[in-house]
Amino acid sequence: MDFGFGIAPSSTINLDKVDRSRFTRLHELEPDVYKCMACGSCSSTCPAGRFSGMSVRKVILALQRGKEKEAVRMLKGCMLCGKCSMVCPRGINTRHLILSICRIYNEEQQ
Ligand code: SF4
Ligand code: SF4
Fold first, then answer.
1. For the chain, how many structural domains are there in total?
2. What is the pTM of this model?
3. DSSP structure string for 10-55
4. Which atom of ligand 2 approaches the CA of 48 most closely?
């Protein structure tokens, strides 16, 4: 029977099957990443967010879920201004965290 609409594909993620190797490496470099409670304070203060879609909160979640392309796309919009580091209630140095993520990708390209 055609109702004229369809059900959206499931966005379920099987965490046992996704590649979380980069997030594991990030945790080695930045143990504080586990302190993130996804509050979004970093994203709401980011001056680049509105124009580029950059969000530290979303980058961390994307890496946890193995969504590499999504994370890289957002990271390209970061200006490394460090404003997000000043508002994190967990005291995470988000600017340094972003640099560590870039370092991981740079290491892979060498
Ligand atoms: S402000 Fe800190 S705790 Fe909140 S989402 Fe950003 S990194 Fe995570
Ligand atoms: S360092 Fe990057 S993510 Fe953080 S506030 Fe600045 S532009 Fe946004």
1. 1
2. 0.88
3. P----TTTS--HHHHHHHHH-GGGGG-----HHHHH-TTHHHH---
4. 7
In whole angstroms, what is the distance from residue 52 CA to residue 74 CA?
7
* CATH number for the domain harbouring residue 57: 1.10.1060.10
Within a domain: 46: yes
Average pLDDT over the chain, rounded to an integer: 93
Give the structural domain span for 67: 21-109
Alpha carbon nearest to ligand 2 atom 6, residue: 81
pLDDT of 80 over the 80 cut: yes
What is the pLDDT confidence band of residue 110, given thresholds at 50, 70 and 90?
confident
